[in-house]
Amino acid sequence: MTVKMTNLTSAPMELDIPLGCMDFDIEVYREGQEARVDQEYVEECLGMGGICGPVLPVRVTLEPQGTLRANLSLAARVSRWDKKGDGCVSHLAGALPPGRYGIRVQLPFSYPTPEEPESLEPRVVEGPVVVLP
């Protein structure tokens, strides 16, 4: 899949893109539901998988009518987080069953929330995907 961003203004647009481990993070949901189907967790490992190291920002200038593209791959599989020693480990738990799903892609851009301007919310794009047998 391709995520595109086009500068629709008449001026160059400077973007600071923070390159880190959550860039273009893809989440898979059953169509019309909120629970993720691509991740399974044991109780002790809830919230694992989102720990990142240092973020390395890259400045990009997007010319008027210029387009930035990111080509992404979606693996139709389920990862399971299990307790191991003092930490948690991820392993392949199987394939996603055939069906209709919704995906959410977290972009490496964020914006201040109206309620808390000092707090940043990630930009997200959503779309449908069908897994075939």
Question: Features of this protein?
Answer:
about 130 residues, 3-stranded mixed sheet, globular, 10 strands, mainly beta, 3-stranded antiparallel sheet, about 0% helix
Textual characterization of the structure:
The chain is an all-beta fold and 133 residues long. The chain contains no helices and 10 strands. The chain has strands spanning 2-6, 13-19, 25-30, 39-41, 56-62, 67-71, 77-84, 87-95, 99-112, 120-131. The strands form 4 sheets. A 3-stranded antiparallel sheet has the order 3-9-10, with no helix packed on it. The protein has a 3-stranded mixed sheet with strand order 4-7-8, with no helix packed on it. A two-stranded antiparallel sheet has the order 1-6. Strand 9 and strand 10 form a beta hairpin. The chain is globular, with a radius of gyration of 17 Å. It starts with a strand and ends with a strand.
Summarize the structure.
It is built from no helices and ten strands. With 133 residues, the protein is mainly β.
